[in-house]
# Entry
Amino acid sequence: MALRITTLGENTACLGDLFGEWGLSILVEMDGATVLLDAGRGFSTAYNADSLGINLSKVDKIVLSHGHYDHTGGLREVLRRMKSQVEIIAHPDIWQAKYAQRGEKSYQFIGLPFAREELESIGASFNLSREPVFINEHMVTTGEISMSSGYETIDGNLFVKKDGVLAQDEMADDLALVINTEFGLVVILGCAHRGIVNTLHQAQKITGNVVYAVIGGTHLFHASEDQLRRTMEDLLEIGIQKLGVSHCTGFQASARLAAEFPKGFFLNNAGTTITLP
# Structure
C-alpha cells in the first residue's frame, strides 16, 4: 500500500521555483486513487502542480475542507486543468456567505469566491453531505466534527450572513480527509477550525483505528497557552508518529510541536512530498 502526499499550495514554498501563497492544497495518491484536498487561495496550486510535473487531470475527486477563500480560491484554475467532470466532496455550508471581523465595525467577505454555476460549467459536480463520505475503501471524510475536547472553540470573529444579518459561524463545514491504512490513520487537515484534537477523535470514531500521521493546518496560531498545553497533552496521548504542520499553525505553536515531537515533526510547505509509512 503506497501512500504519497504532495503539498501543492501553502503559505511558504520549500523549493525556489514554487510560489507560496496564504492557503492550503494537498494532493493524496494511493493505490491508483488521486484526491486533492482544497485548492489554495489563487493561482499557486495549479502553477506549482505544473512546476512539479504533476498532471491535475489525473485527480479523481476534490475534497473541500471548508468554504473559506484561501482553500477554495484556486478551484477555477485547478478545474481548468482537470478532466471534463470531477466530483467535489464538501459540506453544504461551503455556500454560506462567510465573513471575518477585521476591526470593531469592519467585516471582510472570506467565503467561496465563485458562484456554484460557474464551477459546474467548467466540470465541478458537487457531492454535499453533513455525514462522512467514503471515497473508497481507504479514504473517507470526517463529515461534521463533534466538539468533544471541551477546550477547542470556534474563533469569535467568524460570521455568516443570513438575510442580511451577521451571525456567529459555527464552522459546521469544517472537515478533514482520513486515510485508513494498515499502519494507522493518516489525517489530512485543512484548517481544523473545529479543533485538531476533535478532528482526530472523529477520525478514530469513524474508523476504529489509531492515528499514525497528521498533516496540514492546525489552527493553533491564535491558541491560548492553556489550549496549547492541553493540545500537546492530548496529541501525545493519541500517540501520533508523524506531524507535518502547515498554513494556520503559527510559529509559536510550530516550535512547541517540534519540541514535543522531535522525531516525527516537519514543516509541511508547498513542494513537500512525503511517502508513508
Residues 3-144+155-276 form a domain with the Metallo-beta-lactamase; Chain A fold (CATH 3.60.15.10). The mean pLDDT is 96. The first helix runs from residue 44 to 51.
